[in-house]
């Protein structure tokens, strides 16, 4: 299953050439990730931090009044990190493909932490048949 976030385009997102600035896509990914993560246990006091981003720009996106879709899914779940993949797209055009490695974090003690069983179950619902393992299954590393 994939999470879909409808992301509005803002006039301020454009660069001098009338295209969405490349750095703005990180904010789009963040908005989609926050929307996705807000679906898990709202009472959790622990959070997460970004460890790595990877972005491939496929097409230029120009400002327009209609939102763009950001599809997000989980490609890897490890003991103390997970990876989400994204496509920023319309029905017929993919503008950006990206991935983010996310590390669960204990902000009170300022240390990374392991993924809880509840978080793992939540993340497993969003693994996709087209994940990077090539077999449609959950990629797990110790």
Automatic annotation (TrEMBL):
InterPro entries in alphabetical order: 4-hydroxybenzoyl-CoA_TE, HotDog_dom_sf
One of the record's GO molecular function terms:
fatty acyl-CoA hydrolase activity
Q: Which PANTHER family is this protein grouped with?
A: 4-HYDROXYBENZOYL-COA THIOESTERASE FAMILY MEMBER, LONG-CHAIN ACYL-COA THIOESTERASE FADM
Q: Under what name is this protein listed?
A: Thioesterase
- Its source organism is Streptomyces monashensis
């Amino acid at each position: 299953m994939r999470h879909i976030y409808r992301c509005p385009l803002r006039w301020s997102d454009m660069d001098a050439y009338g295209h969405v600035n490349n750095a703005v896509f990180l904010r789009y990914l963040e908005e989609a990730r926050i929307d996705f993560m807000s679906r898990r246990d709202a009472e959790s006091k622990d959070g997460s931090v970004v460890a790595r981003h990877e972005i491939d720009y496929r097409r230029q996106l120009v400002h327009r009044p209609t939102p763009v879709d950001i599809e997000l899914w989980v490609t890897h779940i490890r003991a103390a990190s997970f990876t989400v993949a994204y496509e920023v797209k319309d029905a017929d055009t993919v503008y950006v493909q990206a991935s983010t490695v996310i590390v669960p974090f204990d902000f009170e003690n300022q240390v990374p932490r392991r993924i809880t069983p509840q978080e793992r179950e939540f993340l497993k619902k969003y693994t996709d048949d087209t994940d990077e393992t090539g077999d449609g299954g959950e990629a797990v590393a110790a």
